[in-house]
Amino acid sequence: MEAQQAHTRQEPLEGKRVLITGGSTGIGRAIATLLGTYGARILTLGREQAVLDEALAQIRAAGGTADGLVADLARPEDIRRVFAEADRVLGGLDIVVANAAVSGKAIADMEDADWRYVVETNLLGYMGCAREAVLRMREQGRGHLVFIGSMSADLREGDKSVYVATKTGVQGFVESLRKEVNPEGIKVSLIEPGLVQSAIHERSPEEQARMVRQEEMLRAEDIAVAVHYVLTQPLRCDVVSLQIRPHGQVI
Questions:
Q1: Which domains are seen in the chain, by residue range?
Q2: Residues whose CB is less than 8 angstroms from the CB of residue 143 and which lie 6 or more positions away in sequence, other chains included
Q3: Whole-model pTM?
Q4: 77, 84 contact by CB (below 8 A)
Q5: Chain-wide mean pLDDT for the chain?
Q6: Cβ contacts of residue 104 below 8 Å, gap of 6+?
Q7: Cα separations (Å) of 49 from 73, 140, 245?
Q8: Under a CB-based contact definition with an 8 Å cutoff, are residues 97 and 18 in contact?
Q9: pLDDT over 90 (residue 4)
């Protein structure tokens, strides 16, 4: 068998211009750190400067190149500012990982302003970032959008109706968006994690650590590995959707 038949061309990450939303904490920070070690140029954002600075230091300490800014993706003007910064710092975008999200509870247990903020961040923020990304990627005829959703879109827990609504909306939006932009050379992938160790959970850090040890909860780094997998498949391949859950989470 000839070498060109035995091997398949894969997408390298070195030099890729990558925007990761919500990269100052949790899953987003883990993704930014991992992709940075493969030579990707990272731009990320968070809502607090001190936390963002800590994340940037971690990415750089791991060998990555990273810049960041403070922004709130519930604000349309901040979305526009983030992408303007990507144009300025990176000179364009090859990959956008939409990850910034907040938790939400049952709608009757939330104040009006609070549940609306969850929707504006988790759904409208994703859509606004997708629009800005597509406008740029369309001109270059290629790009990759990765959306971090949640298995809540399928599980639809009874005490998380607001969060479920946003993640179900993301699932439907991404499925349709892929059909819109696929002919233009833009790849679209959805990753839906199960339980992931995070500060947004009501469980204590000690309880979450126990759940990780017992394979009942994922670490943020596990989702970063999944993102790396999606981004480095052979050029002819699209990973359309990927669900990843801890071994002990059976529902």
A1: 10-243 (3.40.50.720)
A2: 93, 94, 95, 96, 133, 134, 136, 137, 185, 186, 187
A3: 0.93
A4: no
A5: 94
A6: 110, 115, 118, 122, 160, 161, 162, 163, 165, 166
A7: 15, 32, 31
A8: yes
A9: no
